[in-house]
Amino acid sequence: MADERKRKGKRRLGRGLNALLGGNEETPEVRLAEETTKETSAGDTSTDSTSIDVNLIERNPFQPRQEFAEKPLKELAASIKQHGLLQPILVRPHEGGYQLIAGERRWLASQKAGLTTIPCRVLDFNDEQVFEAAIDENLKREDLNDLEKAHAFHNYMEQFDKPIEYLAKKLSLNRATITNIVRLLELTEPVKEALLNKKITSGHARALLSLTDDQQLFMVSEIIREKFSVRDTEQEVKRFQNEMGGVLPLGPLEEHFQPAMSTHVFNIQQQLQDFLGVKTEIKLKSMDSGKVIIHFNSNDDFERILSLLKRAA
Fold first, then answer.
1. Is 84 left (phi over 0), alpha (psi -120 to 50) or beta?
2. What does pLDDT average to over the chain?
3. Where are the beta strands (DSSP E) in the chain?
4. How far is CA 207 from CA 62, 212, 235, 238, in A?
5. Residues 175 and 195 in one domain
6. Catalytic positions, please?
7. Are 209 and 272 members of one domain?
8. pLDDT at residue 285 in the model
9. Does residue 68 form part of some domain?
10. What pLDDT, in 10s, does the model give residues 267-297?
């Protein structure tokens, strides 16, 4: 009888994250989650909902999305105030509390709505499965910035020692698609900043990959100033390399961009952003001076950030 219950539990989980996240139709992207859940074999994993204190839940450390737009969060919080949280979030037991697997927007909005407990489904996922679920949820629910995708794909392959082919199969994506996205990490930091701030598109950025760092800085300033299309950019890069031999014109580039950020400083920026849970920027004026910018979207955000900084101090 116990074995029968265990088999039923596994079959229920085998429906995949599409069912757990409330999806009504199977899409190629959810095959990742379905494979993940079908492979789960550690213990009797249950999808039954239970109420958990919001303060006992921590962020998913593998969350690809670094920032959640404030307006949709407020709209979701208003809906939750009126109707309650209709769809449980997914968590796993972690260090005496719980860690998010999927549903961070609902978790954040529930806190804004003033909920102290929220319905959760507790799953027995390992780190790799949590990472896969986080990527899958974000690809399916709302488009990630391509740089966020690039970091998520790269970090997944590095942490779990998986090749691009493995991830492509998991996500039902073309290998070349993932390769092209991950290559964006080769761009110099100011160009990445322009991409994140939507001054250029991923198509513009990919056209610059064959250039050196200084050449990228020059060309991206031209893209922004001249409002080049992607096609214009590709042609201009070819002209720059063929006719000018890739030689930069005279004149400082600093008027357009801050100094390139080192990997060490960039990692610190990412750590601050993860710790504070909001967009955080380190702006360099020179190699040894600059400023730290912490973004917040509400009084609650501001008070929470202050509390974190005070505790850290």
1. left
2. 77
3. 49-53, 57-58, 89-94, 97-102, 117-122, 280-286, 289-294
4. 29, 12, 9, 10
5. no
6. 104
7. no
8. 65
9. yes
10. 788 888 888 888 888 877 655 667 888 988 8
